[in-house]
Amino acid sequence: MSSSQSRHRWLLILLGLLTLYHVVDLFRLARLPDEILDTTSLPIAFRLVTGVTWVGLFAWGMLGVVRGYRGGVRRARYLIVGFVLYTVARLVVFTRAEYDRQRLPFVLAVLAFLMITFVVVRLIGLKPRRHHDNLERTSYDIGKNENR
């Protein structure tokens, strides 16, 4: 595993799980009977298009992180934030059941907390610590520089 991959292992795992979730959901949609498809609040064509789109976007995000593209990690993070926003918007627009309507305030509060945390971390500019930043100079390095 390269250094880029090991540093962003959790991001890759999350993107992989989200991709797998959408692939499984697409297969499940293909196997649903017509009677159930007619009763869902979310149009089936919309679910198919968004499912395929998210699979492609998450795969693209994973590819950027694995290959170490410049901005690949940032792109992957924004994809996850976009997915969370899309999921909440889909819940707000297409929720019909009373149980789901009652849990919307909690979902929105969690989303607000995550978004505020994301923005604060971006504004503060927290950077991961690098191992080589904390290395002490060895006696070999000190002697080598003094002989010049």
Please supply descriptive tags for the structure shown above.
mainly alpha
Folded structure, characterized:
- It is built from seven helices and no strands.
- With about 150 residues, the protein is mainly α.
- It has one domain (about 5-130).
- Helix 5 (about 70-95) runs antiparallel to helix 6.
- The longest helix has 27 residues, at about 100-125.
Tally of strands = 0
If helices are DSSP runs of H or I spanning 4 or more residues, what is the number of helices? Answer: 7
Evaluate the radius of gyration.
Answer: 22 Å
Q: What structural class do the secondary elements suggest?
A: mainly alpha
Can you give the mean pLDDT? 76
Q: What does the overall shape look like?
A: flat
Order of helices and strands: HHHHHHH
- The total number of structural domains is 1
Largest sheet report: none
Outline the low-pLDDT stretches: none
Task: Give the percentage of residues in beta strands.
Answer: under 5%
Write the layout of secondary structure elements.
Blueprint: H1 3-7, H2 9-31, H3 34-39, H4 44-66, H5 72-94, H6 98-124, H7 139-146
Helix pairs in contact: 2-4, 4-5, 5-6
Put the structure in a nutshell.
By secondary structure, this protein is mostly helical. It has 7 helices and no strands. The longest helix is centred in the last third of the chain and has 27 residues, at 98-124.
